Amino acid sequence: MTDTHKETLLFVDDEESILEVASEYFMAKGYHILTAENGRLAVDIIAREKIDCCFTDINMPEMDGLALAEHIRLVDNTIPVIIMTGYPSLDNTIRTLKNGVVDFLIKPVNLNQLEICVKRVLRERQLFIKNIFLTKEVEGKQRIENLNRELTYKVEELNTLNRIMTDFATIDSSFDLFKRVVDLSTELTHADEACFYVINEAIQRPVQVARSVAGGNGNSQNHPDGSIAGGDDGQCAGSLDISQLILDNCDEDRPLLIHENSKVRGLPEAIRSLMLVPLNIRKKVFGVLAVSSLGEKVRFSEKDLYYMSFMTNKAAYAIENVALYENIYENLLATLYAFVGAIEARDPYTEQHSNRVTRIAIALCRAMGGSQEEQDILNVAGQLHDIGKIGIRDDILLKPGRLTEEEFRIIKEHPVIGANIVERLGLWDREKNIIKCHHERFDGKGYPDGLAGEDIPMLARILSVADVYDAIASDRAYRRRMEETRILEIMYGGSGTQFDSAVIEAFRSLYDQGVLKAINDAAN
Questions:
Q1: Distance (Å, whole) CA 436 – CA 123
Q2: For residues 238 and 429, what is the distance between their CA atoms, to the nearest angstrom?
Q3: Which helix (H) or strand (E) holds 509?
Q4: Average pLDDT of the segment spanning 262-276
Q5: How far apart are CA 444 and CA 93, in angstroms?
Q6: Alpha carbons 31 and 491: distance in angstroms, whole number
Q7: pLDDT per residue as tens digits for the range 56-100
Q8: How far, in Å, CA of 227 to CA of 216, rounded?
Q9: Mean per-residue pLDDT for 205-214?
Q10: What's the whole-number mean pLDDT along residues 490-514?
Q11: What is the per-residue DSSP string for 107-149?
Q12: Do the first three CATH levels of 8-131 and 174-321 match, i.e. the same topology?
């Protein structure tokens, strides 16, 4: 038969009769009873059994009741201990209270009174345990909330740092990079203004090259001297001079955080909070980022300074890469343009042909509403459209008479050769396609692939018109410049067949306005 009560009572007394009477009585009431003749035996029982309540005498051999009570308090303070003694004293009472004893009974103990005591103590024990569990649950929830807050902060921090790295990884010009630094500064810190200064040792003052204002459009324009509209050199926060503070910061070469302006020397009163973060390139200060708060709401913290320092470090790395890329890019273009120059030098009649074609193509693109990016693409593709002719033999390229069928087949290879040269550089995919397609015809009868209509890149259709016009309007090795009427017959007559009619309409408009003549006159 299973006990209806789960409570286990431990009686500890050196009087065997008391143990027998208590055991018999409480077993009849459904309790699980354990007994021990002294404290030492009780300790062994407690070590292996789950005890809900302990009754113990004080005076016992080997280990008395007070020592047992102290042991229980240290092992499991949820087990209530009730002292039973036939020799009560004030000293014993005080000592039992110090040892965490919950009740003190005088022998001989009435069994009914003992049962009432058991029920009360066990009820209090349940409340005590429940309170411990609740306390632990509250502590656990608080700990989880703290961990969640910490985790959220770490995730936000990681997202911010990742965003900074991603933003700077995609920038390919110095001006865009400086602008991104100041725009991101106001966005991340909720600052009123951020300015980036380059330190110019020659004139011993900081030169502002980028500025961002909270709520502004972020499109400040450059002055001719390199400063930004909206602020002069050494001035930020709406024309407040912080030049000396910037120079002092450069000398110290470490970030400066002014959480609250309390009449800091060299800092205007209108600036309530400020961060100055130097940007170093090759262990030398290249510039300083100044982030300002003018109102009462925003005060910069160490976290803000950490983000700004991290950002300037990434910006410095990006600036070096951009500078290296721009240098390589310029050198590469110079080399390729030298190839084009060498080609044109082989044929005096085609000298400056690439320059004129480029100017005409850009003018056509602009007239058709082309973007600045498309005009920039044409600037490269136009200059390099004939670079493939470097692979054509002089006896074919410079032949004064009519080309044979085989010679014409060879000359038609130059768009593919040019595209392959550009492709090997790993740059300018769109430019490569334009170079390859600039001899395709709108009706599909061109070369090298016989593309037609919309399959030909739009910029290649524009370049084709510019190329043909300059070719027939210039002296060539095998013929003189055509008459003006004949030139226009070829150009306008090719609308919809050789050329895209939309491009020819733009060509007609520019020709009537005298734009094309002005381009030729400027080139010559």
A1: 93
A2: 44
A3: helix 501-513
A4: 80
A5: 113
A6: 113
A7: 888 888 888 888 888 888 888 778 888 887 665 555 555 555 555
A8: 18
A9: 83
A10: 94
A11: SSPPHHHHHHHHHHHHHHHHHHHHHHHHHHHHHHHHHHHHHHH
A12: no
Whether the model pTM is above 0.70: no
Collapsing DSSP states into helix, strand and coil, what is residue 32? strand
Structure token digits, residue 81: 């201990």
Terminal Cα-to-Cα distance of the chain (whole angstroms): 118
Tokens found for residue 77: 């303070």
- Location of structure tokens 């709401």: 297
The pLDDT score that the predictor gives to residue 227 is 32
Extract the tokens encoding 439: 């001899």
The answer to whether 501 touches 495, Cβ cutoff 8 Å, is yes
Place of tokens 């973007």: 371
Work out the number of other CB atoms within 10 angstroms of the CB of residue 389.
Answer: 23
177 close to 171: Cβ distance less than 8 angstroms: yes
Could you give the CA distance from residue 208 to residue 222 in angstroms, rounded to a whole number?
A: 10
Q: Residue 454 corresponds to which amino acid?
A: E
Q: Tell which CATH classification among 1.10.10.10, 3.40.50.300, 3.90.740.10, 3.40.50.2300 matches the domain 8-131.
A: 3.40.50.2300
Q: What CA–CA distance (Å, rounded) separates 289 from 182?
A: 8
Residue type, 253: D
pLDDT for res 221: 37
Mean pLDDT of 270-283: 86
Label the pairing between strands 256-258 and 273-281. Answer: antiparallel
Q: Name 236's bridge partners.
A: 240
**Which helix (DSSP H) or strand (DSSP E) does residue 293 occupy?**
strand 284-293
Q: Give the Cα separation of 310 and 151 in Å (integer).
A: 20
Q: Kindly give the residue spans of alpha helices, DSSP state H, lying in 258-369.
A: 302-346, 353-367
> Cα 284 to the chain's mean position, in Å?
26
Q: Please tell me whether residue 343 adopts helix, strand or coil conformation.
A: helix
**What is the residue type of 433?**
N
The domain locations on the chain are 8-131, 174-321, 347-523
Q: How many CB atoms lie within 10 A of CB 181?
A: 30
For the 347-523 domain, the top CATH level (class) is: mainly alpha
* Fold exhibited by the domain 174-321: Beta-Lactamase (3.30.450)
- In terms of Cβ atoms closer than 10 Å to its own Cβ (0-12, 13-18, 19+), residue 142 is exposed
Residue 98 to residue 81: CA distance in whole angstroms: 12
Residue type, 507: F
Evaluate whether 101 touches 68 at the Cβ level (below 8 Å). no
Residue 247 corresponds to which amino acid? L
H-type helices in 385-428, by residue range?
394-397, 405-411, 414-424
Contact 237, 211 (CB under 8 A): no
